[in-house]
Specification:
The protein is α+β, with helices and mostly antiparallel strands and about 150 residues long. It folds into two domains: about 5-45, no CATH class; about 50-150, Nuclear Transport Factor 2, Chain: A (Roll). The protein contains six helices and four strands; from the N terminus they run H-H-H-H-E-E-E-E-H-H. It has helices at about 5-15, 25-45, 50-65, 70-75, 120-130, 135-145; strands at about 80-85, 90-95, 100-105, 110-115. Strands 1-2-3-4 form a four-stranded antiparallel sheet. Helix 5 (about 120-130) crosses helix 6. The longest helix has 23 residues, at about 25-45. The chain is globular, with a radius of gyration of 22 Å. The N and C termini lie far apart (about 55 Å). About 15% of the residues are buried. Keywords: Plasmid.
């Protein structure tokens, strides 16, 4: 059964609509249903994290999880976006009204936070933390798409 058949069956079952499958009303309603439902399915699938992404998220979350004045005021920080090119990863995070980004490296099958920052250090700064230039560029493109418009250092 293909995706369209699933949508047709779900649509007719949920709404108990009994249109003739060749009527204009049926097709108009089906198209409207597809426009509304397909983005929801696509969004759900893209938010499912791979085990590697989950490991990076956990390492950064653990790095942010310590008692502090900020935690009592704003709660626990949240990892918002992750890009991975093993053994390197970058992630963005928020914590109350602030946020930033982090560089992680996998060593001995464990992800370690190399730096977690709320300032911009530029491509050269990322490279200084041991990330090869070509990898740094790919990760930055995924995490901070407009990074090339930021000050260089």
């Amino acid at each position: 059964m293909d995706f369209m058949e699933v949508q047709v069956k779900a649509f007719t079952a949920l709404n108990k609509l009994h249109f003739h499958p060749w009527s204009a009303t049926f097709w108009a309603t089906l198209i409207a249903w597809s426009i509304l439902v397909t983005p929801v399915f696509a969004q759900t699938q893209s938010t499912i994290a791979s085990p590697v992404v989950q490991a990076v998220q956990q390492a950064l979350q653990k790095n942010m999880d310590y008692p502090s004045k900020a935690r009592s005021q704003f709660g626990v920080g949240q990892v918002t976006k992750v890009a991975v090119l093993p053994p390197y990863a970058m992630a963005t995070w928020t914590w109350g009204p602030t946020g930033g980004w982090a560089i992680l490296i996998e060593r001995n099958r464990k992800w370690q936070v190399v730096t977690r920052r709320d300032d911009w250090i530029g491509l050269r700064g990322v490279i200084k933390f041991g990330v090869p230039e070509s990898v740094a560029i790919q990760l930055l493109d995924q995490i901070i798409p407009d990074w090339k418009t930021l000050p260089s250092e």
